[in-house]
């Protein structure tokens, strides 16, 4: 087990280095040079551009820039925004709580809706319950976040006046964004749970348990669900990644401050150090989550031995 | 199940050639013809297609011409789905949207599929350092969660519909590499591939004539589903202002344009939204059915 952990940790290093290099390269060959944009804002001249290039170290050779970039990354310094001059790690620390709260509650919605739907559908194969559950989950994955967000605002804010349309702070601000984001994942979770559970319910040991006289609920909870849930954990890891991305659309629809909205704005304004920092941090986070998921496998499923 | 490729197709000298295999004539209905979801998906899609192809032609409407005198009108006999803030007919614009979103989805998926399939076949067939390099690249690409790689590429290329398409396509490549690589690994071990190798069929020909036909069904099933994914992502990018620019009647862009008028004129956003959902739902139904029919494991 310990060897597996070390192996996986070491395996994540080249991947992360690759991510960092890719992000660096992609944003360094930007067509519209951000410094020119920045200088143009202040009615800048060629000298201004040259001064700014020097200030941001853009006049040194690319390999030197890359080395400096790696070194400052190692110190936890992600650079500064071109426009607000705020340090990027500070921006991330400021915006992260809102997005993390959103992602966690969305994940709760996704599991709370998706798991029962998948279980119901698997328990009653070929019934109308299954058809309804699977139909709903298909609709769930087919609705884009901007649309479901606007429909919810239209119903619950503009018509019924139950919930605030935008902003953050109280629980009522959280209801709509997390539902919108959660329902998309609920669809894929329901489909996966159903497929897994249906397969396991056909296994021999379930028949044995049933022959022993176990009630259906005990059968489900103690025998079937336990093994059906292992792959679901992977998807939860993947969904977490989806939510980091989904937050971009959700936070924009609901005018909710957070990492996603900051990123979307940074792309629009070509604030490339911000884009760079946020993408790197998200990818690192995502890699860690998937690592944790991999490790959790071993604890949940005794058949898996990490060797 | 691995289908034996009919080897008799090749004009290879016959002395070393194994006897032609029997190829059963496909008389029974194809699996997908018996799947209700495929039929439902096809029905929905043909409805959307008919809507976006026929309606603009019959109605002779112009999706970009503004007329302030008719702005924000409720749905009526002359404007079935009302008008937007510039007096443009919403039904007309929404029906044009299909002419944009469907090709966008297909082009983006093709952008993902072709390089992905090629890399996957090479990595799976040759293994060795090709496999290692491709595998590392795929790992890096998959380390970007969700839509973030797409956003990064859009940040690089700049906003716009064509760039959004490319960005979505590139984001999709790693999935195809993985899928086609794993199928290739399986099929490479099959007897008919070994036999082809032993009789001296060149590697490239083995890949294109023996491996590829067997990898293709699963890849096509995934590609069908991915068109829905690409359309959704393109609409989301346009909604964020990173895809199609405003006057374009793209569904995501239209949803965004109607945002400010949700109270007075919700139809501006809802009409294109409904069409978008119908399209994606249709493709998902079709793709699900195709996957069930084509996936060797579920047959």
Describe it.
- The complex is a heterodimer of chains A (307) and B (299).
- Chain A has 307 residues and is mainly α.
- Chain A has two domains: 2-74, no CATH class; 89-300, MetI-like (MetI-like fold, Orthogonal Bundle).
- In chain A, 78% of the residues lie in helices and 0% in strands.
- Chain A is built from twelve helices and no strands.
- Chain A has helices at 2-28, 34-41, 46-55, 62-74, 88-123, 128-142, 145-159, 171-201, 204-211, 216-253, 259-268, 272-300.
- In chain A, helix 6 crosses helix 8.
- The longest helix of chain A has 38 residues, at 216-253.
- Chain A is flat.
- Chain A starts with a helix and ends in a 7-residue tail after the last helix.
- Chain B has 299 residues and is an all-alpha fold.
- Chain B has one domain: Orthogonal Bundle (MetI-like fold), CATH 1.10.3720.10.
- Chain B is 65% helix and 0% strand.
- Chain B has helices at 36-59, 90-126, 128-142, 148-157, 161-188, 191-198, 203-239, 251-257, 267-294.
- The longest helix of chain B has 37 residues, at 90-126.
- The termini of chain B are close together.
- Classes of the chains: A mainly alpha (307), B mainly alpha (299).
- Chains A and B meet through helix 1, helix 6, helix 7, helix 10 and helix 11 of A and helix 3, helix 4, helix 7, helix 8 and helix 9 of B.
Radius of gyration of chain B: 24 Å
Q: What is the assigned CATH homologous superfamily of chain B? A: MetI-like
Helix content of chain A: over 70%
CATH architecture name of chain B = Orthogonal Bundle
Structure characteristics:
heterodimer, A: mainly alpha, MetI-like fold, B: 299 residues, mainly alpha, 65% helix
């Amino acid at each position: 087990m310990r060897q597996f952990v070390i192996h996986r940790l070491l395996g994540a290093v080249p991947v992360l280095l690759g991510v960092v290099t890719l992000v660096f390269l992609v944003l360094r060959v930007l067509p519209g040079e951000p410094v020119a944009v920045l200088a143009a804002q202040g009615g800048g001249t060629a000298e201004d551009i040259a001064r700014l290039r020097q200030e941001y170290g853009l006049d040194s050779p690319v390999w030197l820039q890359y080395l400096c970039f790696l070194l400052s990354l190692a110190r936890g310094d992600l650079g500064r925004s071109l426009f607000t001059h705020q340090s990027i790690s500070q921006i991330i620390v400021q915006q992260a709580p809102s997005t993390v709260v959103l992602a966690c509650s969305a994940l709760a919605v996704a599991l709370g809706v998706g798991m029962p739907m998948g279980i119901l559908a698997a328990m009653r194969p070929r019934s109308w319950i299954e058809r309804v559950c699977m139909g709903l989950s298909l609709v769930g994955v087919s609705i884009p976040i901007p649309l479901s967000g606007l429909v919810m605002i239209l119903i619950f804010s503009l018509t019924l006046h139950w919930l605030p349309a935008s902003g953050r702070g109280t629980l009522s601000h959280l209801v709509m964004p997390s539902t919108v984001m959660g329902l998309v994942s609920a669809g894929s979770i329901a489909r996966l749970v159903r497929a897994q559970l249906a397969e396991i319910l056909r296994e021999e040991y379930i028949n044995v348990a049933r022959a022993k006289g176990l009630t259906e609920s005990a059968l489900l909870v103690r025998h079937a669900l336990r093994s059906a849930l292992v792959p679901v954990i992977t998807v939860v890891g993947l969904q977490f990644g989806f939510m980091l991305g989904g937050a971009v659309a959700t936070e924009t629809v609901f005018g909710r401050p957070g990492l996603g909205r900051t990123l979307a704005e940074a792309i629009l304004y070509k604030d490339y150090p911000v884009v760079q920092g946020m993408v790197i941090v998200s990818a690192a986070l995502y890699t860690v989550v998937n690592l944790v998921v991999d490790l959790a496998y071993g604890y949940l499923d005794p058949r898996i031995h990490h060797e | 199940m691995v289908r034996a490729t009919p080897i008799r197709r090749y004009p290879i000298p016959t002395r070393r050639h194994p006897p032609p295999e029997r190829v059963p004539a496909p008389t029974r209905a194809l699996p997908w013809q018996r799947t209700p979801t495929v039929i439902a998906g096809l029905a929905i899609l043909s409805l959307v297609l008919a809507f976006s192809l026929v309606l603009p032609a019959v109605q002779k409407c112009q999706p970009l011409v503004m007329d302030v005198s008719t702005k924000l009108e409720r749905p009526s006999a002359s404007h079935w789905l009302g008008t937007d803030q510039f007096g443009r007919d919403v039904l007309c614009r929404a029906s044009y949207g299909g002419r944009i979103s469907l090709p966008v989805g297909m082009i983006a998926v093709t952008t993902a599929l072709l390089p992905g399939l090629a890399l996957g076949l090479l990595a799976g067939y040759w293994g060795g350092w090709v496999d290692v390099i491709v595998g590392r690249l795929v790992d890096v690409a998959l380390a970007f969660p969700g839509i973030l790689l797409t956003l990064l590429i859009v940040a690089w290329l700049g906003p716009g519909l064509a760039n959004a398409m490319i960005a979505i396509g590139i984001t999709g490549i790693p999935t195809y590499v993985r899928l086609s690589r794993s199928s290739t690994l399986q099929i490479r071990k099959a007897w008919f591939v070994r036999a082809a190798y032993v009789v001296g069929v060149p590697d490239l020909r083995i890949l294109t004539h023996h491996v590829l036909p067997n990898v293709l069904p699963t890849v096509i099933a995934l590609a069908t589903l991915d068109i829905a994914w690409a359309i959704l992502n393109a609409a989301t990018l346009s909604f964020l202002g990173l895809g199609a620019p405003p006057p374009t009647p793209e569904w995501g862009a239209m949803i965004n344009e109607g945002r400010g008028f949700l109270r007075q004129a919700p139809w501006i956003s809802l009409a294109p939204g409904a069409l978008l959902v119908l399209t994606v739902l249709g493709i998902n139904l079709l793709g699900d059915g195709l996957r069930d029919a084509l996936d060797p494991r579920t047959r």
